[in-house]
């Protein structure tokens, strides 16, 4: 008797909880769809060739985002160029030389924390060590700030990917008389190449939308500039400035800039997945 | 070169031996150089963290010396009289993160359960990938959406509703005291919730997938309902990992800058009502740093950054330890 009652009760609570889970899925995904929908709608309505050919305008007039896009490309590119080699080398040490050493354990732990540390703190750090020393804001400081964010991402994926390379491969190479650094560079890197590229792509995706570290390192620039030693505009910072302004033209451009960043980030993430999927086959 | 050295039976053995020795020496040197290069890079990661801490402490020192412990207990933030206290930003950071976690944790876990236990297999991969892609969208996108779409929406719908519903209940009436500004602590918390949602979802889904199918099948075999399997098998097995994932999400929420800065209102005060504007540590830094005049002002902002770093470091370290414990448990 009691068993039958409790069975009905169990079925009911199962139904309620599973219903709630489903509702959570619908609820959560709805918000995300709404955000992307608004972004596409607002962004595409402001998209024109002028966005890619003209510089950021003074308030109240039409213009584009050319200097911001160029600035973002330069600083992201430089940040990745600085950060990637360091990240790959550190990941190599942890996976190849010191797999079980104490240094690797500590670095792994610290790296994981740096991976999700607040990016605005990175901005403050670079402000302290570069901007104050140099005496002015500069694109190079912005790039280094981005590099600090690139490093943990690349370290993590490099280590993970090198750990996936089967040991017999290394042993076979060593048996042929290859020195250790040849084994790593010619065998392990080659076997893990796609995964490492994925890591770099993810790192680019991560930094291309970063705003906080650039606010007080590269600052902003109303004009086109390729001078690494001076302030430089970047898409995220321009979006930040324009969105909070009272001018309709600027707000429109902020939406368009947001769309460009989102599309770039999504493209990079999908590309990274494609590269990663190809290796697993 | 290597195969020449390995073949000693050819003419002029002495010359070959020299050749071989020099090649081997070259190998050894190359090995040594590469080893030290990688080790140096690994050490650089540690130096980076140390550098962040040292730079922040050095920058914060003037403010900490001037205000002492009062820096974290004082509410005043007055650039004119140069009196700075961090209580309002700390309060705002904690409250917005709390609101975010209250919403994002149950919903995120719900989606993760849906994805691992209920979802038709055809939809599982696309939804999973969509969630992961959304986790990578820059936070400034959430911020701009919050400012232009979400805040006006809340101002017209949710906030008047909350004010009228809770207006006559003693304690809650002050928590939801009007007027509806649109922007404010609640809005910031909700935006944060939406932002960390994909993050918590994808981690807890990964964690749920570590449960060995045998365990679940055994539970289903003795007649458990789906919910009972989740409650009695999946969640106990993955508890540590779920806590780790939630803490990672919390670390994100605490340190988030752009999503919050747009909608928090940047008001240095602690109000009982969560509908009023407030500020968070990161929003204060982002809004005021480039305009800060005077060493003490700048130093106080850096001290805020130091506080934020210490708080998130503790949370993230705890999260990583939890996730490491899950990994060890799997390794057994």
From TrEMBL, chain A:
Residues 69-272 form the ABC transmembrane type-1 domain. One of its GO terms (cellular component) is plasma membrane. It is found in: Cell inner membrane; Cell membrane. Pfam families: BPD_transp_1. One of its GO terms (biological process) is phosphate ion transmembrane transport. GO terms for molecular function: phosphate transmembrane transporter activity. It is a multi-pass membrane protein. The chain crosses the membrane at residues 20-41, 61-94, 106-127, 133-155, 187-207, 253-276. It comes from the Bacteria. Gene3D superfamilies: MetI-like. Keywords: Cell membrane, Membrane, Phosphate transport, Transmembrane, Transmembrane helix, Transport. InterPro entries: MetI-like, MetI-like_sf, Phosphate_PstA, Phosphate_transprt_permease. The keyword Membrane applies. CDD domains: TM_PBP2. Belongs to the binding-protein-dependent transport system permease family. CysTW subfamily. This is Phosphate transport system permease protein PstA. The gene is pstA.
Automatic annotation (TrEMBL), chain B:
The keyword Transferase does not apply. InterPro entries: MetI-like, MetI-like_sf, Phosphate_PstC, Phosphate_Transport_Permease. Pfam families: BPD_transp_1. GO terms for cellular component: plasma membrane. It comes from the Bacteria. The chain crosses the membrane at residues 41-64, 84-115, 127-151, 157-176, 183-203, 301-323. One of its GO terms (biological process) is phosphate ion transport. Its main location: membrane. It is a multi-pass membrane protein. It is found in: Cell inner membrane; Cell membrane. One of its GO terms (molecular function) is phosphate transmembrane transporter activity. Belongs to the binding-protein-dependent transport system permease family. CysTW subfamily. PANTHER family: PHOSPHATE TRANSPORT SYSTEM PERMEASE PROTEIN PST, PHOSPHATE TRANSPORT SYSTEM PERMEASE PROTEIN PSTC. Part of the binding-protein-dependent transport system for phosphate; probably responsible for the translocation of the substrate across the membrane. This is Phosphate transport system permease protein. The gene is pstC.
